[in-house]
Amino acid sequence: MIDMQMPGMSGESLAQVIRADKRLNKLGLIMLSSLGSRAEATLMESLENTIYLTKPVRRKELETALERSLIKHDVSAKPEMPSIPDKKTEVQQASILLVEDNIVNQQVALGMLKKMGYSVDIANNGAEAIQVLQRGSYRLILMDIQMPIMDGLETTKQIRSAKSGKGPDIANPDIPIIAMTAHAMPGDKENCLAIGMNDYMPKPISPTELRRVLEKWLKDETPTAPAPPELMPVTEVKQKKPAQLPVWDPSELVARMMNDEETARTVAEIFVETSALTVESLKTAIDKSNFDEAGKIVHTLKGASANIGSQSLAIAASELEQAILKNDYNALSKLTENVENLFLDLEKAIKSKWF
């Protein structure tokens, strides 16, 4: 199994080297890509015994790929092509580009959008988004702000600069761009609009707010879907302390996934798998006094926790993030311990319900 986007040597290059080596060229390869490029898929199809999957990969897709590659060793059947837009059929095939680096947040947004009837492609950061936009055309972008490699603000500037011919070659540089951020601080919305974004949604995003924004900017292209459920307003949640809230409210996650319990369970499973490493990375960063990195890590944890229905952990993570931003180093040990303990309680709660 090989990731397509890697520094030094890309997955594509590695696959071609393996296929050129007589000792290795019969190995089954499963290529994993976050771009979901039609050109990538076509190239991988041309290599013998190679299966191409677009991330995030669902369990059933992976099981099928492994069965074909390992058990039957029969990959002669063509893999399903990823949903990458042809410019002639962009509205039908991929109307929205989701630019988000956290896999939990990706899955939550993807689940809501698909339930609403939209077709979606995903980019993991701004640099990937620029690449995707150079290959195809979309009707709207949902843009996270804080991302590695290239953040949402710089990405928006580059997209808008294409209008003057100075930026990347993008078919629609005036595309509506909707900011998504877990900061939700005074002035955030104004900053986003000032650099060329069209609208703004604070995280965690509710289905109702997402529907409102999409209907506003896509107008006649909005598909018909059931009205999304209401969730507790973020402002009401933020007024409470972690101890005043349950460690986890699974009904909130199910409601956010528009009553799709199977997708909610998948999101919870991904959260447990990824956030255990996130918490360990957070502790390591703080122990090493790498506070810039710790701030980024806890920001990611805050957004993912809110999305899966753990407002207590989201608030605890927010308190730690604020302490880091204010250089309140005396409070870090206690706040970090609180985050870790709440995560362990949350992990137990999720596993006892679904796993």
Description:
The strands form two sheets. A five-stranded parallel beta sheet has the order 5-4-6-7-8, with helices on both faces. Strands 1-2-3 form a three-stranded parallel beta sheet, with helices on both faces. Helix 11 packs across helix 12 (261-287) and helix 12 (261-287) runs antiparallel to helix 13 (291-307). The protein has helices at residues 11-20, 38-45, 59-71, 90-93, 103-115, 126-135, 152-161, 188-194, 207-218, 234-238, 250-256, 261-287, 291-307, 311-325, 332-354; strands at residues 2-3, 29-33, 50-54, 96-99, 120-123, 140-144, 177-181, 199-202. It has 15 helices and eight strands. With 355 residues, the chain is α/β, with parallel strands linked by helices. The chain folds into three domains: 2-71, Response regulator (Rossmann fold, 3-Layer(aba) Sandwich); 87-228, 3-Layer(aba) Sandwich (Rossmann fold); 236-354, Up-down Bundle (Four Helix Bundle (Hemerythrin (Met), subunit A)).
CATH fold field value of the largest domain: Rossmann fold
Largest β-sheet summary: 5 strands, parallel
User: How big a fraction of the residues is strand?
Assistant: 5-15%
Total count of strands: 8
Overall pLDDT metric: 84
Shape designation: globular
Number of domains: 3
Q: Terminal Cα separation, in Å?
A: 26 Å
Estimate percent helicity: 40-55%
User: What would you say the CATH architecture of the largest domain is?
Assistant: 3-Layer(aba) Sandwich
Structural class: alpha/beta
- Please give the order of strands in the largest beta sheet: 5-4-6-7-8
Tell me the Rg in angstroms. 21 Å
CATH superfamily heading of the largest domain: Response regulator
Along the chain, the helix and strand elements come as: EHEHEHHEHEHEHEHEHHHHHHH
CATH class of the largest domain: Alpha Beta
Number of contiguous helices: 15
Low-confidence stretches: 74-94
